[in-house]
Amino acid sequence: MTRYECGGVPYFIENGLPYPTAFFEQDHPRLNLNGTYHMPDLDKTIEIPGCFNKIGDFLEHFEGILPLEHKFVFSGEKSRGIRRLCLEGFFHNAEIWLNGTRLGQSCDPHLPTYFNVTDILKYGDENTLRIEIDNRISPYTLPPRQFEGHKPGWKLYAGVFRELYIESLPEVYCFKADVRTSGDEVISNLLFADAEGNVSHAKYSQIVENPERWSPESPHLHVFKIETPFGSQSVRFGFRDIAIAEREIQIDGQALKIKGVCRHEEHYDHGHALPKEITRQELFLIKDLGGNLARLAHYPHREDAYDVSDETGLLVYAEVANYQAGLGLVQGLFGKSAELRKNKQGLRGLWRLLRSSRQLTDPKYLDSVKRSLIKLIERERNHPSVLFWGVGNECFSITRKSKKALLELKQLVTELDSTRPAAYAAFTAPGITPRFEKSLEVFDVICVNEYYGWYYGSADDAKEYWEKIAKRFPGKPLLLTETGSDAYLSDSKSLEKQCDLLQSHWKLVEKNLLSGVCVWLLKDFACPEYGEDLPVPGHNAKGLYTKEYKEKPAADMLRGLWWDEG
Length: 566
Description:
The protein is 23% helix and 32% strand. By secondary structure, it is of the alpha+beta class. The strands form ten sheets. An eight-stranded parallel beta barrel has the order 26-27-28-29-30-31-32-33, surrounded by six helices. Strands 5-17-10-14 form a four-stranded antiparallel β-sheet, with no helix packed on it. The longest helix is centred in the last third of the chain and has 19 residues, at 492-510. The radius of gyration is 23 Å and the shape is globular. 46% of the residues are buried. The mean pLDDT is 94.
């Protein structure tokens, strides 16, 4: 992506097109390209949006390049403006061809990619679209491969799993709308582009007397309409101000006590290709628990998740898939599976793990993270529900070079959106994190994943751990971004342990040591790290619900705690 400015507003060009904001409504005609795609190498078909390696599918364990082909007719004649092909979400690398012409490729999974197909389309005739999906991960993908045999902490569902369409853009169109509020003022910076690539800027400001404000308790939304002679678009926004004041995270000057639940965007029957109704159902489950924040882990979720959160008053922790970069040393020595632990055998294996710890600071990898972060912020910037921009999760971040990398990511967030804090969820290594974790120094809100009572120590040890961090950084809010334990409906002791662990950690919020907790996790999910000898084989079972949405006792326990808080 190439960065430009117009009127002091930054924007980014990719594949010759400006990367756009997600608009709430617009009247640009679209040709839906969802449907049946042919797999020419296998002589089989797949429905798009869809994932080809779901559990139980014949391609469940496939790794490599899988071509998909689709024929369609684009009716009408060529006219002024742009025809823009959009893939809203895929995994991992997509190389796209139209009528034999290579359009390009994208390796930003879970985020839209766009191509100008104006001069390649056959108008009123049959077109052939070919998408080659490569689901192999490498040291430079998001999430990254840390070493041979490494498996990330969730199943990597592959395919084109969100909408696919061709959009007809007019001669002049708005591609970026940055609508911000400060007190009772709303300031809108708009960027327009034409078919020749010329960009122009318009700025509007208005004082709204006593506007109805957006909050988790009263999520009032406003609409900003953009009208031109060529069409109309709109953006939804909310009046609310986020601030960090000493140990508090505040919305409109009121201290926020975060009652959060982490969520993976996955489903046993759909993989990542979730229907809208499932997205809504799962976010409403968090609201039903009395929760006020969804941590959308560990990659950008579909646009619907942000829309529903806006409407229901559910705050969002949005993040990119900068997941455990450089943590191979820890995973190789202490990982969940024997396959991972093989890497520590011998000096050569240990040396490979030590070298992999530099992953976060590799310029090529860091560029991938920055590009994904740019796309996430540019797309979702107008959602009032977004509280944090998450730049990473559990990377090897205890060195001076890693501090420099985290500073670069934080500065990028500040440059693109100064109205929200950047966040980073650190890994807990007992005895090491409070003293050496560099993200504690870099970010304005200290976010740490901590599993006392499960992977190490007891739940009671968490209080001393957080007190050490609070003593070192007395002016920063502390947010527990993950905690939990595996719990099975067939094992009453595990269910009791899950309740006790979560209740113990919530007491740290009640004592004002922590600003909040994000429970790991809403529901159980497929995880290749977990063995076949468990009560639910191949699944992380820390959910408050099973993968079939059966409620565990911890859900009702939290409901009692959180609703009592008001």
